[in-house]
Amino acid sequence: MAKDDGPTRIQRDRRLRILEAGLDVFAAEGFRGATLDGIARQAGLSKPNLLYYFASKEAIFRALLDLVLDTWLDPLRALDPQGEPLREMLEYVRRKLRLARDHPRESRLFAGEILHGAPRLGDALSVDLKRLVDGRAGVIAGWMARGRLAPSDPHHLIFSIWALTQHYADFDVQVRAVLGPDRDPWAEAEAHLTTHFTRLLTP
Predict the structure, then answer these.
(1) pLDDT digits (tens, 9 = 90+) for 13-31
(2) Closest CA to 7 of 45, 53, 63, 75
């Protein structure tokens, strides 16, 4: 009996092409506006070929959400409980901002899902995300209790970091319209947010 070695390189490449095309189409059109025909066209594949890899538009969208959520949690996972508290928090802010800068389509895809009530991510948010955030909030609370950071609510601190970093991806057009073409919003944002959170968190 022949050994099943899993998907071939061509199959892996096509699956990635479909996900990349889906990310483009969903980020631009939203879930309701996107179509399988549009995704197949963006991927350079026929619709039957696409359906060989993903059974539905929903399957593509859910696969993308799973990847995005996992990537989105990486900066928080990297927060080191043994590190110097202020340095760890500032580096978390920078990682989140750079993630938003480098993955704006993913940010908008995730934001769109949340704005629609997270019908496909409810369980992941209330279990996986909550567990991680609660754990890191406990670490931050411990730093605050020992006087290593200025006191605040750790959960709302994390929410504030999310809001202030992802804004630059989700509202990129607005940010650039206000700042004008000669200013780099990302460099300015990193400098501003570093100063802001240094002042907020320094004991």
Answers:
(1) 999 999 999 999 998 888 8
(2) 53
